[in-house]
């Protein structure tokens, strides 16, 4: 406990563990002669990634850029606007917060078939599913964040004769940022799940969800795993980007120092 | 309870908006049908038809309420058309996944807290695991469990539920197990306590409030996981499967009823686990976090 | 130790002897419905039992690839369509057709007349709904034959992966969707669109029909004589089930409903389905017609720029089982 971790250790241990799993997987598949239709070896997955770059890219643009990211900003923006509005009215807040909390815990992904029915089979329906999925966790987090300043700080603002808007911009907004980023971290992984599931219910002939279900039917499991790798890398990268922005923007917060 | 009035107002407002949207969205079909039949539609025809279509784009709230009533109270709970029967199956998956999730979460947290290597190795992967869209893995999990010979879909479904629910438990337990401060640890050292004593007598007891607090999040995650699993593994029973089947057989009412049944069940689960958490915290002397 | 061995031997003798019937697990291609009535009838009416078989039927669904269940050891025999079975064979899953109860194809493309489509020459520029998950091959080879691109390029068609229902047609998201004569077509009709407003293209009429529901097993398992004998009995009892089901559609539909775990199927729809399915069975005694097989293969090989299979399959069917079953 006394020794602090060096940068190298922080990278090498998890990396080594990952490599070990891959090696065991490769050896296991070869040793037991597992059919590639059930579980392909990592080498075959790598080969699939290298040989189908254009397809993977096209699927990635369709699902991540058009579906997930569009839905993410729409849902987040809607939650932000609504949060700021209802924050002004105590009555609305008291009524909406429990309702939003309830919705945030629901399997909203079940709306996917309905959204496909409403918005067509292209990316619009996927973005709609994602927007609804991220909306409630974002709303709950932002509202929680806006309430996260204590009475003393608020009183201080009042002694400055600050208006509601000024208090919001200078004090409560910044104080809510850590909560907002917390919500964003949850939202990014929800966004990918939503965009992929929605493609199972009808899609154009590209997209990660489309490819996964189609290639599964063709027994081309190397391609299925290639898409899984892409989705995992995307999810991790999105999380990393949100964390990096968070670090820059909320450098003053205790959780970022220490 | 001063929140009752605002909540009721909001819910009523939502229902009114809903009726308006149902009228608007379902009218296209009414017009199309009339055009095919070559008849005119009056406003009262339109109003009547949009509120009672059998395949509406958006069913009116009373249609969903009556479908829910029909499939819960009016049906025997052993009937496959009963939402109670289907809900029980989802509940079973949820609880199994919840238990798996707790066991895995606590076990990993213990390893991470007790061993430096464990922490360095596992913690990044635990975070990465949650950024992987689990649905992408669903077909693979089904095939692999089939190949191992589990027979039913219960195990793969529970694995998917556990995959989502172990993480909140893990994070809270790591926080909880490391919550004793240096002073407390030093005190135990002066007693000559062994590592295992420190764990059992200090770390574990002090992690309990954190543990109970994580359960509510974990059960909600497990429930979402169970429904997602039923949606993406071709399960034939369970609420998620009802949504799929409703879509498959072109019976949107089944889908909507399943969606609302899922909402009600999720609400109940979270309420129950929340009450359990409160009771447990009360028993432990009301120690706040 | 010796005693243990003897009792183990006794157990082995019992399980292969007259006491216990042979276990067979059948994996269906889709959910429980009259499309598979023959198997359910054979089970319910005791035809399997009479052949000393203990049969378990596993329904499929949108995300189940029967081949994978077979490979994973979850089933002994599966119902699959020949295009996806042959594609799987080329991808390293050695499956073999042992029987072909369905003689003709029930696949169609159903279009709204108001979309302006009167024949295949009107397809360019239109959006067509297709099932994927192994069911896209007949469509792709048809488009290949028409010379229409399916990748969204100029002068081709826009392909939409349709879900599991007929919504894309009802919501006018597609000009045409894939339907089966015995299932989705009637969902469109039930939704309130009259047959006069529709125009359909049967794959049979377009000369691009491929063989549908057949029985497939893994190639390795066929080297075992006991397994072959078991399959011969299975096919014989199944065909008896099909004959009975075709002659008694009402009763067959009722049996299917009893086994339907979703509780979402209706009697009217299942009786209608059974009646339509009976038409597709006509002319088959269960054995594969080699001419049909060759036509399917030729159609799949000629799939335009992206053929479904790239080389003539070898050993993809055997007549041995049905020959033994007919004896």
**Low-confidence region ranges of chain B:** none
Helix content of chain A: over 70%
Task: Calculate the terminal CA-CA distance of chain A, rounded to whole Å.
Answer: 16 Å
Q: SSE order of chain B in H/E notation?
A: HHHHHHHHHHH
Number of helices of chain A: 10
> What distance lies between the first and last C-alpha atoms of chain B, to the nearest angstrom?
24 Å
CATH superfamily annotation of the largest domain in chain B: MetI-like
Mean of all residue-level pLDDT scores of chain B:
82
Shape descriptor of chain B: elongated
Query: What's the number of structural domains of chain B?
Result: 2
CATH topology of chain A: the name is: MetI-like fold
Our count of domains of chain A comes out at 1
Strand content of chain A: under 5%
CATH architecture of chain A: Orthogonal Bundle
As a percent range, the share of strand residues of chain B is: under 5%
Helix content of chain B: over 70%
**CATH class categorisation of chain A:** Mainly Alpha
What does this structure look like?
The complex is a heterotrimer of chains A (about 260), B (about 290) and C (about 325). With about 260 residues, chain A is mainly alpha-helical. Chain A has helices at about 5-30, 40-50, 55-90, 90-105, 110-120, 125-145, 150-160, 165-200, 210-215, 220-250; one strand at about 205. The two termini of chain A are about 15 Å apart. Chain B folds into two domains: about 5-60; about 85-285, MetI-like fold (Orthogonal Bundle), CATH 1.10.3720.10. Chain C is of the alpha/beta class. Chain C has helices spanning about 1-15, 35-45, 45-50, 65-70, 80-90, 135-145, 165-170, 185-190, 225-245, 250-260, 265-280, 290-300, 320-325; strands spanning about 20-25, 55-60, 75-80, 95-100, 105-110, 125-130, 160, 175-180, 200, 215-220. Chain C has a five-stranded mixed β-sheet with strand order 2-1-3-10-4, with helices on both faces. In chain C, strand 6 (about 125-130), helix 6 and strand 7 form a beta-alpha-beta unit. Classes of the chains: A mainly alpha (about 260), B mainly alpha (about 290), C alpha/beta (about 325). Chains in contact: A-B, A-C, B-C. Chains A and B meet through helix 1, helix 4, helix 5, helix 8 and helix 9 of A and helix 1, helix 5, helix 6, helix 9 and helix 10 of B. Strand 1 (about 205) of chain A pairs antiparallel with strand 7 (about 160) of chain C. Chain B: One of its GO terms (biological process) is transmembrane transport. Chain B: This is NitT/TauT family transport system permease protein. Chain B: Keywords: Cell membrane, Membrane, Transmembrane, Transmembrane helix, Transport.
